[in-house]
Amino acid sequence: MENVSIPDGGPPVCNDSMDFSSFTSGNQTGLNCTPPSPFYDLYVILPVIYSVICAVGLTGNTAVIYVILKAPKMKTVTNMFILNLAIADDLFTLVLPINIAEHLLHYWPFGEVLCKVILSIDHYNIFSSIYFLTVMSIDRYLVVLATVRSKRMPYRTYRAAKIISLCVWILVILIVMPFTVFAGVYVNPNDGRKSCVLSFPSPESLWFKASRIYTLILGFAIPVSTICILYTMMLYKLRNMRLNSNAKALDKAKKKVTIMVFIVLAVCLFCWTPFHLSTIVALTTDLRTTPLLIGISYFITSLSYANSCLNPFLYAFLDDSFRKAFKKMLECRPA
């Protein structure tokens, strides 16, 4: 996903000095430049990779949504957050075919409104996963803390989880709003080709860097720092407090849920950390275009996309209740 900013009065520029983040931070075919011959293989392979991610992600996340909504025993606080995470991932995989079509056509045929929608969802994908995982980490910390202290949590209800999830959706929409404003269709004056890009005002290079810093801080630094602090405090309390008989229940169901959330978080960070590191590299260095660098940048993009289809497999492997509910619903289907 490549977000190309448009300089005032001029088309996007293709040269041999590449902004590394531009290949890992938006819509992949925003820049209509004919790829050098070493890169043609990537233009063939990428649609296949994106198609697999789309098919697997759409199937898996839809299954998660279906099970949580239909199985009464799956209506828990943690599963409410998982449900919203699956909805966000499903929303992203639904628009991947449009990205694939643009990639193959080498121009944007879908109009201004859809351009804003697609780039908004692209950026929503950057923020939504980590924000819902931050909320899940806060929830796990409060559960562990209450269990260690043998206290009840009357405020931790399914309804409260719904309200918190709605607040996360609204927050991320507000964060993504600037990208929606700057998204638009650019017509190349040389060949008339249309591109769906981020069109920043002058000085566009400053605005582009500001957008990368904005994404890095709000989409990575703040939520990841919060999560690290929470899990550090959680481990500290578990090591330094003797669990009483009630708290030992944490070793069973609650511990399993905590581990599952931690693993889902670890996979998310594995998929998204290279994306944000590439932003740091782009802001601090001036790298030249090479086949290796182009390959790495597309790999980073694909890895961040892949996160949207991995979570359902994690739930299936780590959550017994999810497996049982899914199996039961399959068995109950009419022949």
Automatic annotation (TrEMBL):
Q: Which InterPro entries match?
A: GPCR_Rhodpsn, GPCR_Rhodpsn_7TM, Neuropept_B/W_rcpt
Q: Which UniProt keywords apply?
A: Cell membrane, Disulfide bond, G-protein coupled receptor, Glycoprotein, Membrane, Neuropeptide, Receptor, Transducer, Transmembrane, Transmembrane helix
What SMART domains does its record include? 7TM_GPCR_Srsx (SM01381)
Q: What residue stretches are annotated with the G-protein coupled receptors family 1 profile domain?
A: 60-315
**What is the protein's membrane topology class?**
Multi-pass membrane protein
> Keyword Disulfide bond on this protein?
yes
According to its UniProt record, where is this protein mainly located? membrane
Tell me where in or outside the cell this protein is found. Answer: Cell membrane
List the signal peptide residues. Answer: none
Gene3D superfamilies to which the protein is assigned, alphabetical: Rhodopsin 7-helix transmembrane proteins
Q: Name one GO cellular component term.
A: neuron projection
CDD domains assigned to the protein according to its UniProt record, in alphabetical order:
7tmA_NPBWR
- Provide any one GO MF term from the record: neuropeptide binding
Q: Which family does it belong to?
A: Belongs to the G-protein coupled receptor 1 family.
Name of this chain's protein: Neuropeptides B/W receptor type 2 G-protein coupled receptor 8
- What is the species of this protein? Larimichthys crocea
Species lineage: Eukaryota, Metazoa, Chordata, Craniata, Vertebrata
